[in-house]
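FORM 7B: Structural annotation worksheet

SECTION A. Query
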Amino acid sequence: MGSAIWRWIDPEENPSGVIYGTIAVGAVLAAESTRRETFADTIEATTLILGLYWLAHTYATVVGRRLATGETLSAGGLWRAFIHEGAIVKGAAVPIAVLLILWVCGVGLNASVTASLWTSAALLATFEIVAAFRGHARGVQRVFQVLVGSLLGGGILVVRLLLH
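SECTION B. Predicted structure
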């Protein structure tokens, strides 16, 4: 099962989108969950906001390309950008799945959101570990790279602490 999950989120096609999705879902859950009292409300707000991020990234990609190249807007170009930026959803999928699974298992909302946030943080550290190994980093450089990803993940947890 772990390898199936990794194949789903492996950021080879659009690494920045997957990583952004992971960060975004953590930030959204850290901020939104303080205002929501039910799983359904929390999940609804989170998926709505992530959908808006996805559309915003799609739009920014299309307009940015058009500004740089002078292209006109086309349905095909818009669709390709929409699919490419779908990596944001891939990055958000695992933390949201953790939230849904814990809801089904009867775990409380606060504990489930916390577990989902820790999942986001762990994924960010994991992406950095994979990047360090793929980039053949060694010693202090590898530790530094993993620390950067871990600090970003830790930042999501700090947002939760500050807003709660």
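SECTION C. Observations
DSSP finds seven helices and no strands in the chain. Residues 20 and 153 are 12 Å apart (CA to CA).

SECTION D. Sign-off
Analyst initials: ____
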